[in-house]
Amino acid sequence: MTDVDVRDRTASCDVPEETHAHADYAVDPLSLKQTFLRLIAVGITAAVVTLMAWAVLRSISWPAYNSSWVLRALATAGSMIVTVATAWICYRWIQTGARRRSGDAQAEATDGQGTAKAQRSRALAFILQYLGYLAPAGLVITSTAIPLAATHLYLDGISVDNEFRTQYLTRMADSLSHADMAYVDIPSFYPGLWFFGGGALAHLVGMSGWAVFQPWALATIAMAGSMVAVVWHRILGSFVVAVATALASTAVVLVVAPEEPYAAVVALGMAPGLILARRAVTGGNAALIATIAYLGLSANLYTLFTAISALAVVIIALGAAWSRKAFAPIVRLVIIGVSSLAIAAVGWGPYILRLLSDPHDPAGTAQHYLPEAGTELPTPFFDDPTIAIASLIGLFWLVWRYRDEDTRAITIGLATCFLWVVMSMLMPLAGSTLLGFRVGGPIAVLLTVAGVLGVAQFRLNGLKKFYPELGNLRESTLATRLMVIVLALACVSYTSLIPEKNEEKIDLAYTDSDGNGNRGDKFPADATTYYQYIDRVLHDALGQRAGSVVLTDESNFLAYYPYNSFQAFTAHYANPLGQYSKRAQDIEEWTTISDPQELQDAMATAEREHGFKQPDALVLRGQLELKESAKQLAELKPEEGQFPTTTGVGKDGFSYKIADDIYPNNPNVRFRTVTFKPQAFTEGWDLTQVGPFVLAVRQAAKT
What we know:
By secondary structure, this protein is of the alpha/beta class. It has 25 helices and nine strands.
C-alpha cells in the first residue's frame, strides 16, 4: 500500500495522514460504520467481562486487603499480565503489518493456500484488535476489582462524598426517575445518568443500590476505557497507538479519579473529545455528532468537566474562525451548543423548570469548598516518575507539534484546565470557588495522552533522524521491539502501584460498615449493625420506604435504605429547591418545643407554609425508659421483631446534629448538636429503642 493509497482511504475518516507516515506501523483506519459497531460491541463486552470477573472474585473467600498481602500480590501479577499481553498484541500487530508491506502478503497470495492463510490472518487480526480494545477493562479488573474482592463497598467506603453517591444510587435502585436523592417530590439537581444506569442494573440483577455501587463503578470505568480505545483508533488510524493511549489514560484515571467513576468516564473522553470538536467546527459531520454526544452526555454525568470541555470547544471554534477567516466554525459551534444542551436538558430540565418557579436556596453552595489542593497548580511532573516523564514528553510534544490542529486542540484543553484552576483560586473574592482542586485529573490525563502520542511521533519520525540505519527493516524492527519492551516495563511499573496509590481509599472500603452491617476486614461493625432493625420498625409502621420522610442525622442509614430525608446531609449536598437553610431553622425551633401538640402543629405549619412534608419518623440518638432489665435486653432478638418495651421518654433528650456551612474556613462544615425535648414525644408518637437510637414514628403517618 502506497502513501497515496493511505491518504485516499483515510481522508473521509478525518485521520491525520502524518500518523501513518512510518513503515513500522500498520495503517489500519476505521470506517464510520466499523467505529460505531465496535463501540457498541466493545462497550458491552467490557462491561460484561468486568461484571463476570467481579462475580467470580466475590464467590471466593479472600483475606481482607488491609490485613493480608494476598490481594495486593494478585493485583500486581494481574496488572503485569495485562500490560505484557497488551504489549505483545501491539508488537504482533506491528510485525504483521511490517511483513505485509515487505512483500510476504504477495507471496502468500500466490501460494495455493493463500486464501486460507488470508482468512486466518483476518481472524487473527480481529482477535488481536478485540483483545487490545479490552486491555483497559483488564486493567480495571486487576488493579481495582481484585483489591476490593473481599468487601462489598467501593473505594472510599461509605465515607465523606460516598455517602451522597450511595444515597443517590439507592434512590435510583428503588425508583428510576428524576427524584432527588434526599427530598421527597423534588427533581434531582445532581447529574443522574450514571446513577440511573446503576439503578437499572440493580433492578436487573435484584441488588440493593449500595451493593451495586462497586460492580457498576468498575464496569463503567472499564467500559469507558475500552470504548475510548476504539475512538482513538478512529481518530489516529493506528490500532497500536490507540490501545497504548487508552491504556495509559485509564491507568492514570484509576489513580487520580477512581472514587468518582462518572467523573472518570468524562475525563477519559476529554482528550479525544477535544480533537473531535476541532474537526467538528472545521467541517467533519461525524465529528460534529460525536462532539454533541460527548458534551450532552457528560453534562448528565459530571458538569464540572463538561464546563471545562465546553469552554475549550468555544476557544477552539473561535480560533478556527479566526485562522480561516470564516464564519462557518461559529455556526457549527452554535449547532454543538444547542444540540448538546438539548441532550443535557433530558436530565437537567425538570430541575431547571422548578428552579425558575419555586423558592430555593442559592444554587452555588456546592462550590463552597477550598482545600489545600485548591491552592496549588496541578503538576503531574512531580507526582510519579513514570507520569512525570510522560508529562514532560507530552509537554514537549504539544509545543513541538503546535502547528498541527489536533495537537493544538489538546493544548487548548490543557490551557483551559489550568485557566480554570487559577480562576477558582480567585473566586473566593466573590464568595465561592470553581472546585479547581478536582481539575488535576483531566490535566494528568491530557498530559499523559500527549506523552504517549509524543513517543509514537518520535518513533514514527524522530528516531530515524538520529539513527538513519533504521531505514533497514531488520534494524527498524529491532528498534520497535526495544521500544515496546521499555514502554511495557514503564507501564508495568506504574500499573502495579495503582493499589498502593489508592491504599487509603481501599482501606476505607474495608473498615467502613456496609449495608448488611458488616465490615470487609471482619472486625466488629459500628452502629450500622442496628440499621436493619431500624428499617424493620419503620417499614412495618409506615408501609413503604420511598415517600416516607425521616428526620435523622444518621446519613449512612439513608444511604443504605431509600427513605426520603427531611434534611440533607449538609448544605453542599443539598438540593437548592429543598431550602436547606430554612429546614435547619425549623429543626432548631422544634428542639425548643416541649409540648406534644405544639410540636405537631409546628411540623404541620412547615409543610403548609413551605411545602416541607413533615417527618413521618425521627431516628435520633437517645435513651428511653425501658421495662426490661439489662439481662432481658440482651436476650431480645430484634431480627425476630423483639424490641424493648417503652415505659417513658427518658430525661436526657434526643440528639440531632446540624451541619453549618462555614466556608471559607477549612473544613467547610461545622457540626453542632441540638437536643429534642423528650416531653414533646409523650403524645402522638410511637417510640421504640433500637440500640443507641430512639425511633419516633408519627402515629398519624402509620399505615
